[in-house]
Design goal:
The chain is an alpha+beta fold. It has one helix and nine strands; from the N terminus they run H-E-E-E-E-E-E-E-E-E. The chain has a five-stranded antiparallel beta sheet with strand order 1-7-4-9-2, with no helix packed on it. The chain is elongated and about 80 Å long.
Length: about 120
């Protein structure tokens, strides 16, 4: 009789753990409606001839950058990370980023990857 109660208690514990695991993993993401100020300014009309410094790399790197203007000329594997967001920048589009960000470059082809950046 003790074995039956032990098995029954163990069974309920397993069901409770599985239930909470299911709820935790299938929790829908919260979406916020534009109440937060956007720290990335995209300006396609601004002149691309702004004096930006040209940088290049031949290997995979993660570069911590201060707020500034950012532009890529080719569709290489370049990503912008701001806190918990990852942005794939568009080609020939000037980004005004108002907070520190990480530039992640993944060089798949082994060719020189160029980007333009100027600290504000």
């Amino acid at each position: 009789m003790i074995e039956f109660w032990f098995f029954l208690n163990l069974f309920f514990i397993v069901i409770i753990v599985e239930f909470f695991t299911y709820i935790r993993k299938n929790k829908p993401f919260k979406t916020t409606s534009g109440n937060k100020p956007n720290n990335i300014g995209v300006n396609s009309n601004e002149s691309k001839e702004v004096l930006l410094d040209n940088y290049s790399t031949l290997k995979d790197v993660q570069i911590e950058l201060l707020p500034g203007k950012f532009l890529i000329k080719n569709s290489d594997n370049v990503f912008i990370k701001i806190k918990d967001r990852v942005i794939i920048p568009e080609v020939n589009l000037l980004y005004n980023i108002d907070e520190k960000f990480t530039l992640e470059v993944i060089n798949v082809k082994g060719q020189k990857i160029n980007y333009l950046y100027k600290k504000i």
